[in-house]
């Protein structure tokens, strides 16, 4: 999957775009790790009780030029994309996802597309 200017996760109606003034040090402060190719990666558990018990994960990657990104919600092992918005039993995971997204917005990494 290529990096894009805009993105969204399965089931979420909101489209996000990378902020124009995103900085490398901000990504590192938020827990992104920089790979050998320069791509920044973030993986966060969507379990609100423990960061180690991951039924679902939020994954986001930002390309080395800070021009594109991609994000997804996956199963705990990270192999399959899932939609946590259609199941009422995953409300706590949806709340955790919204918390992570709001943190990324507050730190000028992404913004809501209008």
Automatic annotation (TrEMBL):
InterPro entries: Amino_acid_metab_prot_put (IPR014965), Lp2179-like_sf (IPR035942). Pfam families: DUF1831. Gene3D superfamilies: Lp2179-like (3.30.1820.10). This is Cysteine desulfurase. It comes from Lentilactobacillus kefiri DSM 20587 = JCM 5818.
């Amino acid at each position: 999957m290529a990096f894009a200017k805009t993105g969204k996760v399965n089931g979420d109606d909101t489209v996000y775009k990378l902020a124009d003034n995103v900085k490398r040090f901000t990504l590192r402060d938020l827990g992104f790790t920089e790979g050998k190719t320069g791509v920044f990666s973030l993986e966060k558990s969507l379990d609100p009780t423990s960061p180690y018990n991951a039924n679902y994960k939020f994954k986001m990657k930002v390309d080395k030029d800070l021009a594109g990104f991609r994000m997804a919600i996956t199963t705990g092992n990270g192999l399959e994309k899932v939609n946590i918005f259609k199941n009422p039993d995953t409300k706590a995971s949806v709340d955790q996802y919204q918390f992570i997204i709001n943190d990324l917005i507050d730190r000028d990494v992404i913004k809501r597309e209008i």
